[in-house]
From TrEMBL, chains A, B:
<dbReference type="Pfam" id="PF01502">
    <property type="entry name" value="PRA-CH"/>
</dbReference>
<keyword id="KW-0378">Hydrolase</keyword>
<feature type="domain" description="Phosphoribosyl-AMP cyclohydrolase">
    <location>
        <begin position="43"/>
        <end position="117"/>
    </location>
</feature>
<keyword id="KW-0368">Histidine biosynthesis</keyword>
<dbReference type="InterPro" id="IPR002496">
    <property type="entry name" value="PRib_AMP_CycHydrolase_dom"/>
</dbReference>
<keyword id="KW-0028">Amino-acid biosynthesis</keyword>
<dbReference type="GO" id="GO:0004635">
    <property type="term" value="F:phosphoribosyl-AMP cyclohydrolase activity"/>
</dbReference>
<protein>
    <recommendedName>
        <fullName>phosphoribosyl-AMP cyclohydrolase</fullName>
        <ecNumber>3.5.4.19</ecNumber>
    </recommendedName>
</protein>
<comment type="pathway">
    <text>Amino-acid biosynthesis; L-histidine biosynthesis; L-histidine from 5-phospho-alpha-D-ribose 1-diphosphate: step 3/9.</text>
</comment>
<dbReference type="InterPro" id="IPR038019">
    <property type="entry name" value="PRib_AMP_CycHydrolase_sf"/>
</dbReference>
Amino acid sequence: MQNFKPRLSVEQVEEGHDLSPKFDANGLIPVVTTDADSGEVLMMGVMNDDALRLSIETGEAHYYSRSRQCLWHKGATSGLVQTIVEMRIDDDQDAVWLRVRIAGGASCHVGYRSCFYRAVPRGGGPLVFTESEKAFDPIEVYGDAPNPTRL
Amino acid sequence: MQNFKPRLSVEQVEEGHDLSPKFDANGLIPVVTTDADSGEVLMMGVMNDDALRLSIETGEAHYYSRSRQCLWHKGATSGLVQTIVEMRIDDDQDAVWLRVRIAGGASCHVGYRSCFYRAVPRGGGPLVFTESEKAFDPIEVYGDAPNPTRL
């Protein structure tokens, strides 16, 4: 398994070749996932230590599910597995960017291609849908699994 | 100023036209910012309530700086202002995606175009730089302002 390096200096973290990720107080690091071809942002999530190691090792996106409080191999339920084309880490190594290809071409539990299917107009006003139809039927794919959205 | 709507139901939040953002226990919402033309992820940050309102109102990206603990009008120091081409909100409205154009074409305090200038190889191993040179000299732009990176 991948060993993460200790964070010793700003220069090492920002300008070096060591992977020294910074997990927050809850042991999590934020992740943004984009479609490797279109550049569209598909989702934002978090990884814990194990999810990051497994993503590097297997080439498939693993996250930590805060609603279910467990390691989450994306696509294990839905089949919408994310194959990692490229993984990047940011300057201070407290954020991860995954460029992925998705089996089935969709990512969002609501059924849309991207989780970001609504635009916020400049100046405010009602949200504008940017996808006109769902890529899959969430009931068919997830059945009666609890909806992860929390109010 | 934009008024955010109360979160009343999963259906309203996921399928409706109300902007009802969910801020975390610290009053923050994560933001991913991409180049509107190339789709490249430039940075990840957070907004508080004011930063989100001001971003919607002015069309320029405002964040909350956790290192400085204050509202942060991106580019106020560096001149690298981010003009918002499109703002999106995700399914459960706990994450924001900004598509921006940047004066000067760079975003990262280290001097690179994107904060994500290093790739993590599949299986592990040393990080690989994806930008070969800096877009600007951070000392010239930021002078002796404290480096925001924390170990």
